[in-house]
Amino acid sequence: MKLRDRMDPKYTRISLYVIGTCAIIYLLGYIIRNLPTVSGAIAVAFRWCWRTFTPVFWGFVLAYLLFPVNTGSAPSPSASPPSWWWPSWSP
After folding, report:
1. By CB atoms within 10 Å of each CB, which of 19, 56, 67, 89 scores lowest?
2. How far is CA 31 from CA 18, 34, 40, 44, in A?
3. Least confident of 7-11, 45-49, 52-56, 83-87
4. What are the C-alpha distances in Å from 25 to residues 22, 34, 81?
5. What percent of the chain has pLDDT over 70?
6. Which residues fall within 8 angstroms of residue 16, CB to CB, at 6 or more apart?
7. CA pair distance 33, 31, nearest whole angstrom
8. 38 contacts: CB under 8 Å, gap ≥ 6
9. Quick check: helix, strand or coil at residue 80?
10. Is the C-alpha dihedral spanning 63, 66, 71, 74 positive or negative?
């Protein structure tokens, strides 16, 4: 008789859950023991993301202030730009 034939699927599933739970508890214990190192790595990653996305955020703000989103209807193609858009070079 093979080992597979003698195994009960119910007890096999329970033993896999027990092994998985023990592995998770071990990993959590390892993380807690090394919490200063882990939190330092998370802080470095957060700081990098903050430094990377801050200029992008300010770029969006500046782009919005310089060219706001048009919430009305689109201007007709024959409409001339506003007088402040391009300086007049005529004397």
Report:
1. 89
2. 20, 5, 12, 17
3. 83-87
4. 5, 14, 67
5. 73
6. none
7. 5
8. 31
9. coil
10. negative
Q: How far apart are CA 62 and CA 56, in angstroms?
A: 10
Question: Confidence class of residue 88 from pLDDT cuts 50, 70 and 90?
Answer: low
Total residue count of the chain as it appears in this document: 91
Q: What pLDDT was estimated at residue 81?
A: 60
Rounded Cα distance, 7 and 14, in Å: 12
C-alpha 71/C-alpha 53 separation (Å) is 27
Taking residues 26-47, what's their average pLDDT? 91
Q: How high is the pLDDT of residue 70? A: 62
Q: How far is Cα 40 from Cα 36, in angstroms, rounded to an integer?
A: 6
